[in-house]
Amino acid sequence: MTDAAIAEGSLLYLDNVHRSFDGFKAINGLSLVLAPGEMRAIIGPNGAGKTTMMDIITGKTRPDSGDVLFEGRVDLTRHDEAEIAIMGIGRKFQKPTVFESHTVADNLELALRAKRGPFSTLVHKTTRAEYQRIDEILATIRLTERRSWLAANLSHGQKQWLEIGMLLAQEPKLLLVDEPVAGMTDDETAETAILLRKIAETQSVVVVEHDMTFVRDLGVKVTVLHEGSVLAEGSLDVVSSNPKVIEVYLGR
Amino acid sequence: MITHFILNGLDRRAGIVVALLVAIAILVPVLNLVVPPSSPFHVPGYTLALFGKYLCYALLALSLDLVWGYCGILSLGHGAFFALGGYAMGMYLMRQIGPRGVYGDPVLPDFMVFLNYQELPWFWHGFDMFWFAAIMVVVVPGLLAFVFGWFAFRSRVTGVYLSIITQAMTFALLLAFFRNDMGLGGNNGLTDFKDILGFNVQSAETRSGLFAATALSLALSFWICSSVVRSKAGKVLIAVRDAESRTRFIGYRVEHYKLFVWTLSAMMAGVAGALYVPQVGIINPSEFDPANSIEAVIWVAVGGRGTLIGPIIGAVLVNFGKTWFTAALPEVWLFALGALFVLVTLFLPKGIVGTVQLAAASWRERRAAAPAAVALDPKPAE
After folding, report:
1. Chain B closest-CA separation from residue A187 CA (Å)
2. pLDDT in tens, B8-26
3. Whether the model pTM is above 0.80
């Protein structure tokens, strides 16, 4: 297949992307194709360029060169964070960032798909459909009991789930999830794997994670990043038996 | 939709504040004009003028709190918008003097005759009409805020850097307005006002009217602010304050929200300045002094930022203290102000109102928890 044909059928398409910071090559010829509906896990040692990759996809960082296409046609390098979010790419940060002085329900309401301009939100009245959607999401992320709590009072794991719930409320086509189980208990980690698998039934998901048990629980195709480019790709068993991968990452 | 916006702002608590301010707007002038001076309920003209001034400061503090308390933009230059609104009103009042000036020129204000102006500078045209001046009171500060904010927020200048450039803005205006060739009275500013809307600015009735207008403007602004912060847009503003980049990643154009609230706030500050000038009888470049803007920040911090009633209480209390101190112990005032700021920052980080709210909330929680604890313990220890 030609590059154009590959890009055509993809949801996310990165080709030969480069980005350096003060001479440090954070992303160095990275190419990655994600099919619609696919769930992908990305692993790699610290400094492999995982977060920079997320920054490039979501418009926070511009690449020095290379193509970044969404749905095979939208050039993501030409848009800013808010535009990319509205197009349908949601992002969950490594450190849970929810709006601490808002209630759980308000956090979700802010994320719900609706007009985003100041004059629309100024006169906005929450509709019954929106309340229903909030209830559904609360049930999915198991926070129904906590709906009127301030987000600041949630546990670490609950904040992570709330943030995933906010992503769901955005109804994105693609979810980028950065280390969702960092700092979680084993039970919470297992629950999160179930939650993400459920989300992946309807949306494409890219998960960056260090936790190997968790990646195994997800049971999806794995991409290994190293020094800003792809080192190996395949199922977890295939990549973890790859000698190059063992050398740079798993062997240590 | 608009009615939802307007009514949503007037919950029980905001309703009480608005009603209280309207009552003050009616009662205080009545107590001043109708009740005879011999009565203990009489409000002397001096007190009325003083509190009229405090209410102008309260409006400035409210506008500052809208951007600082709800959107995290710490402005150290809000006095500039206040002063610009004041100058717009001052220009109207100057034109009302007409031929009654010292030099008796039918059109040119005294300072222009003194500086050998042959004709009125272009930007003075229209200010002989009250409606035009009233529009300029909000348009001029609003426009400056819009242009300033457009550049600052689009380039994502935030935090202390933004605070510093707001301070630089007001300082630059201070220097500009000091110049005689600005055509705005230079060092001396605008003063010797005679009439407003045909009424003598010195008369007790006009002063009462100005007081009432100030209290009503504060009530209206409070209502507007309450509507804004209780709307979904208000929730977005708080989201920006707490986690700006998160807000961006869920699809909000943060710079548009900042620009909106910043411009609205500058317009309110302009109104405060316009109401202030006829009550104190002068506007000069010292109103642009950065120290004034910083003082306004202290009022908000003392009262409680992020609450709407806090800045009003803070502005009135601190200025009451200032009046008392500068009369009794003039050399101590600045130290007292500094100490107040340090103490509030250390011991009442949420200000007076924020602390009271916190205490009330924890009291309610304890009261709710006490019977619940009993109910949750079905088997008392045997």
Report:
1. 27
2. 888 888 999 999 999 999 9
3. yes
